[in-house]
Amino acid sequence: MPLSLRAKLLRDLILDVWGIAAFLVNLGANLWAVSQYVLSGRYVWAALVLTLLGLASVALQVFSWVWLRADPLGLHVSQPPGRCLALLHLLQLGYLYRCKQSLQQGLLVWQQQVPSDFDLAYADFLSLDISMLRLFETFLEKTPQLTLILAIVLHSGRAECYQWVVIIMSLVSISWALLDYHRALRTCLPSQHHLRLGSSVIYFLWNLLLLWPRVLAVALFSALFPRYVALHFLGLWLVLLLWVWLQGTDFMPDPCSEWLYRATVATILYFSWFNVAEGHTRGRATIHLMFLLSDSALMVVTWVPYGAWLPSGILLQILLPVGGASFLLGLVLRLVYYHWLHPRCHWESAQVDGTRALHFPEWCQLPQNSRMIELAQNFFPKARDEASLPWEGEVNGVL
Known about the structure:
Layout: H1 3-39, H2 43-70, H3 82-90, H4 94-111, H5 117-156, H6 161-186, H7 197-224, H8 229-246, H9 255-271, H10 282-303, H11 316-340, E1 349-352, E2 355-358, H12 370-379
Antiparallel strand pairs: 1-2
């Protein structure tokens, strides 16, 4: 095995272990927080944390189960029988099982002297699904949990040790999930565009710097007006769900699960940008950014006059400028990334299992994750003819 390939496989194994460990640590921190809330008599807070954990876990198991049922017959040779697999998902262990399956396949490939193309492609197939599930789990559970914990801290005026653990782990895990998803999409490109260390750092930072001011604005609104934050989320979520539906998504294998996907995407869009449709997305990304910026500004205007209600230890005069500076810096880093580091690709359409895929004959005999290939085609811009003028080209995601 070439040293470069062995190093890549080892790096992927380390990242898989890190992802599983982060998931378990974050779960443990949340259960720790629930126990502390119960012991201190904060039953409503404990119930909210458990509700978010339960809803996210159920959605994650449904996605995993539907994808496994839609995969080609005979692809997952070593997986347990259907009833055992269904029981694992019913017990909320489907995601962890898939992580274990991906880790085992990665170890199998890494130990081989000359791994077969099928084993390599199958390892990529599994890791792509894990990256997608991790992203969904991040925005269905970690991001709402982070918002809730911040609202509790702002309301009480102090942060306990377990709350700091949840906040730090959530911030790092959210940005890491976005980076991991982006790296996974790049493996679907027709030519290798590896995300180097410097590009990874920039991508990680701009996501972190743009996301936490949004979470902070929602958390402060929740701390002051806890009865209205649910109405605020539901109203925006319905608007975003309508927007996703109007873009004609066709990601899941059946209409019912497609609505679950659209609902999940609408939840992601409440906090961050997520592309779901093919075409030049500069306009859609700009609309979404302005929408979130306007909404966050309205929330700030709403709760600033009532800031005296918060404990005196919370310095709004510091939080607001820091949040604004973070947003501007994140926007600059995002523009830098998309202008110089985002790849353009030559896509050729073909039909593989009813889904557009890369038009390479040798790929037809290998496992192809058509779900992620379609998202990659939507996310990465199509390269234009070299004769085109520089200002005539559009780069997907550039504002």
